[in-house]
Amino acid sequence: MLKLIQNEWMKLWHKKGTWAMVALLILAIVGPGIMMKYYETKTAEDITWQENEQQVINSYKDMLKGDDVSEEDKKYFEEQIAISEYRLANDVPSQSEGSVASFMSFASNMLSLVTLFTVILAASIVSSEFSTGTIKMLLTRPMSRAKILTSKLLTTFVFGLFLIAVNVVVSALVGFILFGGASGVELEMVNGQVVEKAVWNDLAYHYLLSGGDFVMSTLFAFLVGSVFRSSSLAIGLTMFLSFMGGMIVMFLSKYEIVKYIWLTHSNLTQYESGNLMIEGITMPFSLTILAIYAVLFLAISYMSFMKRDVTA
């Protein structure tokens, strides 16, 4: 099995597209970082952080005067005003505009790009063998089809984890180089009190929750690529469901069946923000549904690959 994975890993890095994915991911982190540093420098020349916080207070107070402000928005505005007033009263500048932690938090949004690149690999790692005809050479080895497919699946996830590691390391380095000297703390409202935010714990939790969409999108693309032998279909269908999943869930929200669709639960970050796609769902329930679909996706992938005629 290990030799099969090593072989798949070597084949992966012999492709220019693999290096292009890594380069694009790094560029997607470094580019915005430079722009953020430039903007921060220009802003610092024109306004102090105290003046900026006062502007924030005035802005939210103006919003509160609106006639169509919802209770949820009103609560949010009042919390932001309280936080800004706390900063001014206690001389606590924000690090949101420049620090390693804040930049890494921003760069965590690139996990969607990591998921896209992993989906591309998952969709093509099996289907490309059929389109090029190399599947016949692969099956001549004294290895079972199950081991061959497992090696491809594991290689896909190892590559995805590698991209996540690149995201973390590069964002940490860029953040340290550009914003390493920044001071300040992040604040939040907890039970009506302004407290210091556990930035690193929140960041780790965000990465963990982002794994839901990463794993399910990868397994679904692997399924479509294995069953239909079409990488373009797998990539297109997976991306369509990723971008339109929210609308699909919203359209089906009136029906009970929506609670049992994996699209409703794959975005686990909804539990972080508190904005649940469907009322009444819980984290354990979502994890259970995702586990069931993961097993189903894998079962169909293996059954199709094991029984499909590949001699043609």
TrEMBL record:
It comes from Lysinibacillus xylanilyticus. The lineage of its organism: Bacteria, Bacillati, Bacillota, Bacilli, Bacillales. This is ABC transporter permease. The chain crosses the membrane at residues 20-39, 110-132, 153-179, 204-225, 232-253, 285-305. It comes from the Bacteria. The keyword Membrane applies. The keyword ATP-binding does not apply. Keywords: Membrane, Transmembrane, Transmembrane helix.
